[in-house]
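Re: [ENG-882] Designed sequences occasionally contain unexpected residues at chain ends

Forwarding the minimal case from QA. Structure tokens:
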């Protein structure tokens, strides 16, 4: 059994997202659990998920999970807020390995952090319309007021690399002004792209507002989960061992450029696969 357990501990973690945003989650896993291997899939052909229906996002998520299972992953992280909101509950029932999304860990921390009971959530339209953050937060504390704000232009701005740009500052100011007016004291960055413009958001909101980064909290929760299931990899991984592998459904080169700009781990290649086959 020890051999099997070691084999299992040495298996990779599957991480998927609608595109490149989930790399912020992968980055936190790399930082916080450095002995873990990762297989990342970005659904770059079908991005964005935020404007698609629940049925479509669930169908896509199931296809990706079928692909990740072929890579013999030991756990799966849905590193996409929309997919976590729409698909996690249904998929969880069908899984025999641990699976977590990015919404619950962020909701938990925000519910603990607020002092005045006013929590803002910025996210895609899909995540905001699903009311998923509100649902989770109110399960923890029913007295909290959760105010959602869809920020659809943030994703394309981040993907164009305009992280510190007057255009991004201007749009962020427009989106965030109403949250400033209602005096929130906690703000959830409810889309995996948003931690990349965290400094811009923080500057506009001011230091009285606590920013919650679900990517960071998800990596923490994943570590606890792996520990509880005795799945943490206890051995350091050698350089030639294919530690981090990346797959996309389209545009591998563009994905690679973006990945290398935010991950400091030298991503050598991303492989394109036909996700519709799964």
């Amino acid at each position: 059994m020890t051999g099997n357990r070691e084999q299992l501990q040495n298996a990779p973690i599957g991480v998927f997202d609608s595109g490149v945003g989930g790399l912020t989650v992968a980055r936190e896993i790399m930082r916080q659990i450095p002995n873990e291997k990762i297989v990342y899939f970005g659904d770059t052909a079908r991005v964005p998920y935020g404007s698609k229906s629940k049925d479509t996002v669930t169908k896509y998520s199931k296809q990706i999970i079928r692909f990740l299972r072929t890579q013999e992953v030991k756990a799966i992280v849905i590193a996409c807020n929309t997919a976590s909101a729409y698909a996690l509950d249904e998929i969880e029932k069908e899984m025999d390995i641990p699976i977590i999304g990015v919404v619950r860990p962020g909701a938990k921390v925000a519910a603990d952090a607020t002092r005045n009971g006013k929590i803002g959530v910025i996210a895609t339209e899909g995540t905001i319309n699903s009311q998923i953050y509100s649902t989770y937060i109110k399960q923890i504390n029913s007295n909290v007021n959760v105010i959602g704000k869809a920020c659809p232009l943030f994703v394309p701005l981040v993907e164009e690399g305009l992280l510190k740009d007057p255009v991004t500052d201007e749009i962020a100011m427009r989106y965030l002004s109403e949250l400033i007016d209602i005096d929130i004291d906690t703000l959830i960055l409810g889309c995996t792209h948003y931690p990349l413009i965290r400094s811009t958001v923080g500057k506009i909101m001011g230091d009285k507002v606590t920013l919650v980064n679900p990517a960071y909290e998800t990596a923490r929760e994943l570590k606890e989960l792996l520990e509880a299931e005795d799945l943490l990899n206890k051995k350091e991984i050698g350089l030639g061992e294919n530690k981090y592998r990346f797959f996309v459904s389209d545009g591998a080169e563009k994905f690679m450029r973006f990945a290398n700009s935010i991950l400091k781990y030298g991503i050598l290649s991303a492989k394109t696969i036909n996700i519709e086959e799964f």
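QA comment: On inspection the terminal residues look reasonable. The chain has two domains: 2-101+217-277, 104-214. Proposing we downgrade this to a documentation issue.
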